[in-house]
Every structure is written in structure tokens, then in C-alpha cells.
Design a protein that fits this description.
Helices cover 48% and strands 9% of the residues. The protein is of the alpha/beta class.
Length: 421
């Protein structure tokens, strides 16, 4: 029966696991917990292909408990009940350790079905998720578990697994692999931090390589062909999507055009054009704002051009917009002002609209109170002092001029007029 290479050479001890030194080193907290022999309920959080399942299986074997593995994308309540049915029987004298992969796909009822048995210790749960558990795992399960974050692997870590995979296949097939220079490094970098992807590439290279006289030729061209698409992680509904958009906005806000182009490129390489278009418009309004109002118009024009062109050419006008916004002066004065205004409104701080601002039809209702609205265009500089805010907040200040050339000029202009200079 066929077994993927990643499964055949799966580490059997924590010492063999690559990466995750922050929790698995000799002094790492997870390593110390496992060595102590008392395994708590845990949630492993991190991208796919970085060792969560491997570590769970190693822990299970060291625990002396019966090990079960479920994937939440296909399992249901009946599967959980079947496992629970074995508790307190000769089938599981030391209890059960359940590895629940992709727990974010279990609904609240399914997750809650585990609680009673997690609490009394008969069932130890190690759950894994590629999404932030504080958003996707219910509080009752979280409160009974310890969360460990598994981090994406570096290319140097993956290179160890790639070489191990090559050596394993050489021994299994009794053949010598002639590696062209750069093959291992390319595989290790192109897999996006996913060991499983890297080992799948190694396996395919052994299928595709030319064999002669007990040797197999592994070329860089084949390695590049088998990893034409970047191995970066991207899920339009997952954390990586929002992390990239957040990184794009924060890079532009921080006036770093190089980082802005990097994160824009990652979004576009994943085939996502709509999300960066929307985010660039948000940035133009929120972070550049009144410091350079034309940025909004220019960004909109760049987005229109991108939508008309489509990928791959769309990258050009979107890059124009990203660099423009990153190098433009910044102001969030309007953004902060509307936030303050809406906060007051949500808290019930509003009041009646001043009489002079009400619709003129109110003069015909027989109230006898004239509107007395002063039309600013009838006055010098098109300005006349009158109250615009409701009485309860008539002195509040929502908008504060930003510290940039454009807003300072507007501030000086209006201060001159309103002070009669």
C-alpha cells in the first residue's frame, strides 16, 4: 500500500522534529511537560505541514493512553460517542488520547460534547487548527486547554527534512541521487515553510528523474517545474489572508514602499486582486487622507486600470498606487474625527438639530419660530458664525488639523477668517 514519503519518514521522537525550538528544545515548555509524563489537554495552533500531527503522535505514544485520531472536516458526534464508549473499559484502561485535527470545523455542540470527559481526565484532547483558536474554538474548550503556537519553519529547518527524504529514497530504491547544485535549497525555499510540500516535491523528483547505471539525475529545472507556483500559505477565508492585508496596510502606513510591494506581490501571486484593491482605497482614505487628498483619486484610477487590465498586467497600476501611498504624507485626522463622532452617537450623545439647520418647511408648521438660518455665501469670505452642533455638544471638537502642509494651510486660512484677520 502506497504511503507518502512525508508519512514514511515521520519523526518518532521529539529530537527528530525540525523547528519549533521555542517549545521543543531541551528547555522548551512543551518538552518539559511531555517529559514529566502528565499530558494536559492542548491546542496546537499554526500553519499546515509544520509538525503538529507528528508531535501529537509522539506525545500519544509516550503517554501510555489509547490513541485515536479524528479530522473535524469529516468526523461527527457519532465518532466522538464511539470513542467515549470505550472509556472506563478494558479497551482503554489508562484513558484515551484523542488527536482532533482541524478543530475549527467542529460546531459548538460537537466541541461541547468533549467537555465532561476532558474535565475529569478520562479523555485527553490534543486539538490542532490552522486558524486562531481564540476566534474558532469555544471558550469552554479553551479554558480547559493549553494553547501552543507552532511557527512556520525556516528553509534551513526544512533542508534537514529534504536531505533525510532523499537519503531514505536512495536506500529504499538502492540508487544514488545525483543532485544538481541548488536543488535542495530551491525545494526548501519554494515550499513556503511546509515540510509536507517539500517532501512531496522530493518524491516527485524521484519519479521524474532519469535513471541510468544505478544513478538518478535530480535537476534544478525539474525542481523548479514542480514548484512553479510559490508555496506560500494563503487562504482567502483564513488568518493568512487578513495577515497579508494587515501587513500591506501597516507597511504603507509606516511609509515603507519596499514592504508594501512585497505584501502586494504576495496577494497578487495568490491570484487575489480584489482584496488589495479594496484595501488600497481604505489606506488612501484612512492613512493618507487630507495630507494628500489627490491620493484617493489617483488610487481609484489605478484600481480602475487594474480591473480593466486583469492579472498579470494589473500588478503595474496597483504597484503605482502602493508606492504612491507609501511615499505620500500621512494623516488620519478625518478617520479619527469620524470615529469620535460615531462613538458619541452610539453612546446616545446627540441632541436636537439646531432650529436654524432644520429644513425650511418647519417655518410653515405654525410654530411661530422662524428658522433664522444665516446663508454663508451672503457674507464676506463665505463665512458667518452660527451654531451647527446640537446644544448638548455645541463645543465638542471632533476634527483636529493634522500636522502636514495641506491641513496646516487650511488651518491657517480658516483661523484667519474666523478671527477676523
Amino acid at each position: 500500500m502506497y504511503r507518502p514519503l512525508a508519512d514514511e519518514i515521520r519523526p518518532v521522537t521529539l529530537d527528530d522534529v525540525v523547528g519549533q525550538k521555542h517549545i521543543l528544545s531541551a528547555n522548551g515548555v512543551l518538552r518539559r511537560i511531555v517529559n514529566n509524563g502528565s499530558i494536559p489537554n492542548m491546542i496546537f495552533y499554526g500553519p499546515s505541514g509544520i509538525g503538529k500531527t507528528t508531535v501529537a503522535e509522539i506525545i500519544a505514544k509516550s503517554s501510555g493512553k489509547v490513541f485515536y485520531r479524528l479530522n473535524a472536516t469529516t468526523a461527527g458526534i457519532s465518532d466522538i460517542k464511539a470513542i467515549i464508549g470505550e472509556l472506563d473499559t478494558f479497551m482503554a484502561p489508562n484513558g484515551v488520547l484523542l488527536y482532533l485535527d482541524e478543530i475549527q470545523y467542529f460546531n459548538k455542540k460537537q466541541q461541547q460534547s468533549l467537555l465532561e470527559f476532558m474535565e475529569d481526565g478520562r479523555l485527553t484532547v490534543i486539538a490542532s487548527t490552522t486558524e486562531n483558536p481564540y476566534f474558532y474554538v469555544y471558550n469552554a474548550v479553551l479554558s480547559r486547554s493549553t494553547v501552543f503556537e507552532f511557527k512556520a519553519l525556516q528553509a534551513e529547518d526544512i533542508e534537514i527534512s529534504v536531505r533525510r527524504g532523499i537519503k531514505f529514497l536512495e536506500n529504499r530504491e538502492q540508487i544514488v541521487a545525483d543532485l544538481e547544485e541548488g536543488v535542495v535549497k530551491h525545494i526548501s525555499h519554494a515550499c513556503g515553510g511546509d515540510v509536507r510540500k517539500a517532501l512531496n516535491t522530493v518524491e516527485l523528483l524521484f519519479y521524474a528523474g532519469e535513471r541510468k547505471d544505478g544513478h538518478i539525475s535530480i535537476t534544478l529545472a525539474d525542481a523548479e517545474a514542480l514548484s512553479q507556483k510559490s508555496g506560500m500559505r494563503y487562504d482567502k477565508d483564513g488568518d493568512s489572508h487578513y495577515d497579508l492585508l494587515s501587513a500591506l496596510q501597516k507597511s504603507i502606513r509606516g511609509s515603507d514602499p519596499d514592504a508594501a510591494l512585497h505584501y502586494l506581490g504576495r496577494l497578487l501571486e495568490a491570484g487575489d486582486m480584489i482584496s488589495p484593491c479594496r484595501r488600497l482605497m481604505v489606506i488612501a482614505c484612512e492613512d493618507i487622507g487630507l495630507a494628500y487628498p489627490n491620493a484617493i483619486t489617483i488610487t481609484k484610477s489605478c484600481i480602475d486600470a487594474a480591473m480593466m487590465l486583469g492579472l498579470p498586467e494589473a500588478r503595474i497600476p496597483l504597484a503605482d498606487a502602493a508606492v504612491l501611498l507609501a511615499t505620500a504624507p500621512k494623516s488620519n485626522s478625518a478617520y479619527m474625527g469620524i470615529n469620535k463622532a460615531m462613538a458619541d452617537i452610539k453612546n446616545g450623545v446627540s441632541g436636537e438639530i439646531p432650529r436654524q439647520l432644520q429644513n425650511v418647511h418647519a417655518d410653515t408648521t405654525g410654530s411661530g419660530i422662524k428658522q433664522n438660518y444665516k446663508y454663508p455665501h451672503d457674507y464676506p469670505n463665505h463665512y458667518v458664525k452660527q451654531q451647527y452642533l446640537p446644544d448638548v455638544i455645541k463645543d465638542v471638537v471632533y476634527y483636529e488639523y493634522g500636522d502636514n502642509k495641506s491641513e496646516k494651510a487650511a488651518q491657517a486660512y480658516w483661523e484667519g477668517i474666523k478671527n477676523g484677520r
